[in-house]
Specification:
Elements: E1 3-6, E2 8-11, E3 14-21, H1 39-63, H2 70-82, H3 86-99, H4 103-119, H5 124-127, H6 130-144, E4 163-166, H7 171-180, E5 184-187, H8 195-203, E6 207-209, H9 214-217, E7 223-227, E8 232-235, H10 239-258, E9 276-281, H11 288-293, E10 298-302, H12 316-329, E11 335-338, H13 367-373, H14 375-388, E12 394-398, H15 404-424, E13 434-438, H16 441-445, H17 447-451, E14 456-459, H18 461-469, H19 487-503, E15 507-509, H20 520-526, E16 530-533, H21 538-546, H22 550-562, H23 566-578
Parallel strand pairs: 3-4, 4-5, 5-6, 9-10, 9-16, 10-11, 11-12, 12-13, 13-14, 14-15
Antiparallel strand pairs: 1-8, 2-6, 3-7, 7-8
Helix pairs in contact: 1-2, 1-3, 1-6, 1-7, 3-4, 4-6, 12-14, 14-15, 20-22, 22-23
């Protein structure tokens, strides 16, 4: 009898192959003191390791096939840029000189400092950026320790068709996996919003993360069946299971191939209701994905990436260039720019802590609270967004609002900045739309009051679920509580949608729930008609819209909203998704 393991499915697809266990743990680092006359040589050794790491990443970058979308190649560029950042290049050198310690120990100390910065952040997406630090640092450490080449950098076909089982995988490793023809991967660590999992979805590589003790429980060479959507791994299963999943694999491939026909079709239900589908992007280069999927613009552009992995804060002009680049690439479609959403315990650009550290940093100074407290951080961004609005259909979105006075304070700042720009003769769109993310339960409860002062709302389900259920979805001890179908979550979503309808402004959804096919029909029935998601899910969601009748879904959604038990809701959702319309 075979063994079944479970994790978090982050990139859909059925994969069947033999297990290949990778054991590239973080190198064990030993500290030792250097005599004064060897310090300069140690600095030289460290800088040589940096050069070698750059060369390795450059070689990986050259393996990326021509025509690969820019949003995929950008993940390697992120690691290349980190190797130019003084936080990784200069800081360890200073430690070598001042402490007279070996390069490995100096780099480890700096790694710990950088990781603590990211771990203090409240946004789960930003918190997983610590993985990128670890991936780059581990690469440098392996070079310093003269460890052998990473198995994924083999030039033969020994990895073709295998399923990689490992602790964690970097974006660079993932690109090598694709080059080697690896079928899928399973990791013990990682987050659903890490660069690696985002890239896996973009590349179409099935993936499961968070499989506890996977390398202990999966023998090397064992036959695996994994479902990247359900998050299940079958080890050495019987012939009947193998036949079933091979059939399902063929069916899935046919389905995904058929999705391409939806690219040029509008998102319209069978009974004629038009639905808007937009893309979530992180980098200006990601706008290529809009063209690939025919998305109706950008529903969420996260500006935090302009501020990360750098020693200084981007000024108004640099931000303006980034925002204009996205506005122009959207070719007249709306671009929704979210203002800075960072936590307060640590700030990028070497800023000092500006508020006392708290036990619950997610409940502290972050996002719009931080921006209002730090106008020197916020005003340049407001100026850049407003100026970018002269070059396209730019909209501004405020994260983590929780009260009306907070909103009015932001709107007054926006008006002040408009007056400044007008006085300086700088162009901007006087009628630029301003909206807010509904991601705090308090905001959902007063959504109607907020809506009276706004042009649109967007539901950020990731934080809304987290705050409503008081659970951290990245914490393995409590993430089982995180449930998009909890009755309280659904009622807050319904309340927000009703507020938009009553006031007459559009309500979108830009959290992960919007790109999850399990919830599409329910959300349609609840009245959601604007979805924003990772581009890789857009055509799949569009296909579900094409197969649905809104009039029928509305009746079914009403039944769901009357339920007070999540399991009963789950059963009803299963029926809704199974009905042929």
């Amino acid at each position: 009898m075979g063994l079944t393991l479970t994790g978090v499915g982050v990139s859909r697809g059925i994969a069947i192959g033999n297990a290949y266990l990778l054991q590239p743990e973080a190198p064990e680092i030993i500290e030792y003191a250097l005599p004064e006359h060897l310090v300069a040589d140690e600095v030289t050794r460290f800088k040589a390791a940096l050069d070698t790491a750059r060369q390795q990443l450059s070689a990986i970058r050259k393996q990326i096939p021509r025509g690969t979308p820019a949003d995929i190649a950008a993940f390697i560029e992120t690691h290349v840029l980190m190797l130019e950042d003084s936080a990784l290049t200069d800081a360890p050198v200073k430690l070598i000189k001042t402490q007279r310690c070996n390069a490995e120990w100096a780099l480890k100390q700096q790694r710990d400092i950088l990781v603590s910065v990211f771990e203090a952040m409240d946004d789960p997406y930003l918190r997983t950026r610590k993985d990128d630090v670890d991936h780059v640092v581990n690469r440098i450490q392996r070079i310093l320790l003269n460890q052998p080449a990473h198995p994924l950098e083999f030039s033969d076909d020994r990895l073709k068709g295998v399923i990689i089982v490992t602790g964690d995988i970097s974006p660079a490793d993932l690109l090598l996996m694709q080059h080697q023809g690896v079928a899928a991967f399973i990791t013990e660590a990682g987050g659903p919003t890490s660069h690696t999992t985002i890239l896996a979805r973009s590349l179409g590589i099935p993936a499961i993360i968070g499989v506890a003790h996977a390398r202990r429980n999966i023998p090397p060479g064992s036959r695996l069946i994994m479902d990247g959507q359900q998050g299940t791994v079958l080890v050495d299963s019987d012939a009947k299971s193998m036949r079933y999943f091979r059939s399902k694999q063929r069916e899935d491939k046919r389905h995904l191939a058929a999705l391409s026909r939806f690219k040029k079709q509008p998102a319209v239900t069978r009974d004629g209701w038009s639905i808007t589908l937009r893309a979530n992007v992180e980098l200006p280069e990601d706008t290529q994905a809009i063209k690939r999927t025919a998305a109706a613009g950008v529903g969420l552009y996260r500006t935090e990436f302009l501020f990360m992995n750098r020693p200084n804060i981007p000024d108004e002009e640099e931000q303006l260039r980034a925002y204009v680049s996205i506005a122009r690439a959207a070719r007249g479609a709306p671009v929704t720019i979210r203002t800075l959403d960072l936590g307060a315990d640590k700030m990028p650009g070497g800023r000092q802590q500006i508020a006392p550290s708290t036990t619950h940093s997610a409940l502290g100074l972050r996002a719009i609270r931080l921006c209002l407290k730090e106008p020197s951080l916020f005003r340049p961004q407001l100026r850049a967004i407003l100026r970018a609005s002269a070059y396209g259909r730019v909209r501004m979105m405020i994260p983590m609002l929780s009260s009306l006075p907070e909103l009015l304070q932001v709107l007054q700042l926006v008006q002040d900045v408009k007056n400044e720009l007008k006085g300086q003769g700088l162009k901007y769109n006087e009628n630029m739309r301003v909206g807010a993310m509904i991601e705090v339960p308090a905001a959902a409860l007063i959504a109607e009051s907020l809506a009276r002062h706004l042009d649109f709302l967007s539901i950020g389900t990731n934080d809304l679920i987290q705050y409503t259920l008081a659970t951290d979805r990245t914490n393995e001890a409590v993430n089982y509580i995180y449930d998009p179908l909890h009755p309280a979550v659904l009622r807050l979503i319904d309340m927000t949608l009703r507020a938009g309808r009553d006031i007459g402004i559009p309500v979108a959804m830009c959290g992960e729930m919007a790109g999850d096919v399990r919830y599409t029909r329910l959300l349609l029935g609840m009245g959601l008609n604007e979805f924003s998601m990772h581009p890789s899910m857009l055509l799949e969601i569009k296909s579900i819209i094409h197969s649905s009748r809104l009039t029928e879904l509305t009746k079914m959604a009403r039944k769901v909203l009357k339920c007070s038990d999540a399991e009963e809701i789950r059963m009803l959702i299963g029926k809704i998704n199974a009905i042929e319309m």
